[in-house]
Amino acid sequence: MPAKPGSDEQIFIRQFVSAYENFAWAGSKIDRLDEEIDGAIEALITRVDGQTLAIEHTLIEPFVGDKRDYAMFEQAFLRIEGDKSLAVPDTGITIYVPVGILDGQKLAKRNIIVESIHSWIMNNRLHLREGTHGYQCDVPGTSPVTLTVKRHKFGHPRPNPGSVLVRRQQVTNDLDKVICKALRNKLKKLVDTKADRHLLFLERDQFTFLPDMIFTEIERQPWLAFCAG
């Protein structure tokens, strides 16, 4: 089915086109092809002199399955932060959970993993070493989970109730696979679209995932050009 209209994407493309090449494309006609044709590119831009520009965009995740993993993580682990009894006065504790530990697990098993980590924090929060260290958390019926824990004392002059944060930790680097998939899915339909110019936007939605990481990986893998084939 054709894509549903997305106001944010429409605004971005309109603003980009208005300023592209020192405003040379301002006032161009914008056809949202993906809202009209299933599988089409996002937009075909036609300038007043007849020049055309095909635009497509794709999201680059920091690792394979990032958005799926975050959705499960947010639903399962962030409720641990709501347990104020875990806080240690004047102390900041951040628990880094390996990504993917809930992937493929049934709900009952997910709950066991989450509750095991919750209990581990409760039982060990007073005995954590200062700095960043790895700890093993046992989970009934499955392999232990290795947690990376950062503990630091607050330097505030006034008493502080303390805080406990639970965050994800990427343990593998498969950015090459992410980029290969993105190029394979997007480049072919982009270059197959008849236009004078073709432009692919690479989007990221995490501020810690720096653009240079994406560019470096593309330049490092000369075979990525074949992914579009």
Question: Could you explain the architecture of this structure?
Answer:
This protein is α/β, with parallel strands linked by helices. Helices cover 32% and strands 23% of the residues. The strands form 2 sheets. A 4-stranded mixed beta sheet has the order 1-2-3-8, sandwiched between helices. The chain is elongated, with a radius of gyration of 23 Å. The mean pLDDT is 87.
How many DSSP helices? 5
Strand order of the largest sheet: 1-2-3-8
Mean pLDDT: 87
Beta fraction of the residues?
Answer: 15-25%
Total strands: the figure is 8
Radius of gyration: 23 Å
Query: How can the largest sheet be summarized?
Result: 4 strands, mixed
Terminus-to-terminus distance: 24 Å
Structural class: alpha/beta
Helix content: 25-40%
| N to C succession of SSEs | HEEEHEHEEEHEH
The coarse overall form would be: elongated
* Unreliable stretches: none
Quick synopsis:
The protein is α/β, with parallel strands linked by helices. It is built from five helices and eight strands, in the order H-E-E-E-H-E-H-E-E-E-H-E-H.
Protein traits:
229 residues, alpha/beta, 4-stranded mixed β-sheet, 32% helix
